[in-house]
Amino acid sequence: MPTGTAGRGAPGAVSAAAATATARNVILLVGDGMGDSEITLARNYTVGAGGRLHMDRLPMTGSYTTYSVGKDGKPDYVTDSAASATAWATGHKTVNDRISKTPDTDRALPTILELAQRDGLATGSVTTAELTDATPAAIAAHVTDRSCQGPADMARCPRDTRAEGGPGSIAEQTVARRIDVLLGGGRQRFDQTITQGPERGATVLQRARERGYQVVTDAAGLGAVRPGQPVLGLFAPETVPVEWTGTPAAAGGTAPQRCVTANPERPAGIPTLEAQTRRAIELLDAKARQNGRGKGFFLQVEGASIDKQNHDADPCGQIGETAAFDRAVKVAREYAAQHPDTLVVTTADHGHSSQIVPMAARPAGLSATLVTDEGALMKVSYATHAGEEGQEHSGVQVRIAAQGPQAHRVLGTTDQTELFTTLRTALGLR
């Protein structure tokens, strides 16, 4: 069996058994904004230039293209997280800011999570963003604009409102979908009151409890939940605070710095992404066994603030979130080692702005200098946008890597939409 990129161009090396194998479980891990530069920065800082992260050890590695489209179908070469997540969630391109709906007719598209539920699989979503943010929303909801996260946020989605016969906000749809495990931030969206439709007068959180959700807000609560009943973990009002901190990049650079690996502004009791992933797998595995019939689970895990810290030109925050994401990859691979009928895929939704540049370079934008764990200096440059609203995405292809049934499908250069086919094929979904 080929490993790494050695398998590219050699499809005959993939056994017939591997090519036709069906997965019982799929764990999809998405590093938001985690392009090759972001991976390299985290590798250099934490394990050294010659070291390897857990995500580097997945045996099948390729790359995929990430462009979105305009309403006219022409390429939009730089995607946002909504359109990119829609691509692998549904197998279709869409316009930026849209969640799992067509680019022209604004029609809802079936998602991989919906297909998994229809086939009797347990399902879960874990994120360090709000649970209503673009990447988790794309597998659970359908709205015209990603901003329509709660009942009070529907200004850009008039046709999706309950008053117009639509499904409501992302929060309402996510709860109504009755996903087995939901873990992340965004409590503010679920605290909003529903103002339209038969459920008006109650908050989204109240409706979640009525639907049987066990609602938890910290690590202790997550550890105490009962398997078999749906779980809604809301660990922050908005995005979950990052694990690391440091001095952001600045015009003219910064003094050499070591990152602070325990963010003093991160409240105690918030479970790490690693802990959330481990608990989600435990709960989904238990739920799948209760379901019987040989069905497994589908789980999506997002390391969201790799992107958000990139926007802020904050290399320490960014590296810390990449390292946290990598530990979640480790958890997924450990489970797969004991359950080889599990497909593990790790990828990104788009590239971003950080670049490693020579120490002698004088970047035109913002830059920072880090002292790595190897004791060497590393200069990081951010120069994709000069405005106050922060750095921008890039339109590059990004890494996709996998192990398990159908993992060979990620080899070579593919497109985000083909990941949907890989997941659907691996799970044997119609």
Automatic annotation (TrEMBL):
Keywords: Disulfide bond, Hydrolase, Magnesium, Metal-binding, Phosphoprotein, Zinc. The active site is at residue 81. InterPro entries: Alkaline_phosphatase, Alkaline_phosphatase_AS, Alkaline_phosphatase_core_sf. Its cofactor is Mg(2+); Zn(2+). Mg(2+) binds at residues 32, 133, 135, 302. Pfam families: Alk_phosphatase (PF00245). Coiled coil: none annotated. The keyword Membrane does not apply. Disulfide bonds join 148-157. Zn(2+) 1 binds at residue 349. The keyword Phosphoprotein applies. Zn(2+) 2 binds at residues 32, 307, 311, 350, 393. Binds 1 Mg(2+) ion. It comes from the Bacteria. GO terms for molecular function: alkaline phosphatase activity; metal ion binding. Belongs to the alkaline phosphatase family. This is Alkaline phosphatase. It comes from Streptomyces venezuelae.
